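ok so for the tutorial part 2 we go from a plain amino acid sequence to predicted structure tokens. step 1 is just haveing the sequence, like this:
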Amino acid sequence: MLFRSIVIMSRPDQVNIRIFLFIVLTSGVLTGCVKTEGTIKIKGKVSDERTKTGILFKNIIVQGLVTSDNESETIEAGQFSTDSSGRFTYSLKKIKGAYRYNFCFIGNPDYAVTVSRISLGEIERNAKYLFFNLDKLADLTITINRKSKIPASDTLHLCWESDGVFGLSLYPYTVNNNGQTNNSFGLTSARDLWWTGGYVNSTINTKVFADKKTELSWELYRSGKREEFIDTITCKRDFANTVYFTY
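step 2 — the prediction. this is what the tokens look like for a chain of 247 residues:
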């Protein structure tokens, strides 16, 4: 049986991704008394969504979800990795009171941090045939160049989505603002990218889903008016993808 993975909407900077991974890795460790109800021997494979080839040495953390007093708590049920063919065999702890489990796939430059949530019943029915597909990431460089001389200053806003997932949450990005003057600077926040000034010459390096539609949305605020530009692209895997915006 195939299970669709869900991208974790974590903050788009490496520090916060490290924090997320720390929380995942330590979940259950700080719990005073973890009650278990035996184990389930599970077998399966983690594969690339498109090529169906196994993803080797993928680290996986499994969490049991326990609900009490309308509050949910995640308790670690196990950690393991795939082998050189993308397959795994593991004795998973059954957490008392946990009827749903998170299979957390640790992210890297090839695949984003993802989580698949499966019910205990599904795990028991398909214990020997647990198959997960992950979408591969592709490199994307966004190049911005303001050539307009009039007006002296305006504001540009950029955001993007890849396969419906907010881009700044999908993978860490870097912004290089080149050749700036005193009235030109790039502003970044957790969920947005803004540039204000008379001379903008910047590149953004990030990753998006390979072979999936990525939509870039630009908003230009100039002389009291707002203009919007939409660019839809599909980034190829294992390829240096670049998109240009000149205004």
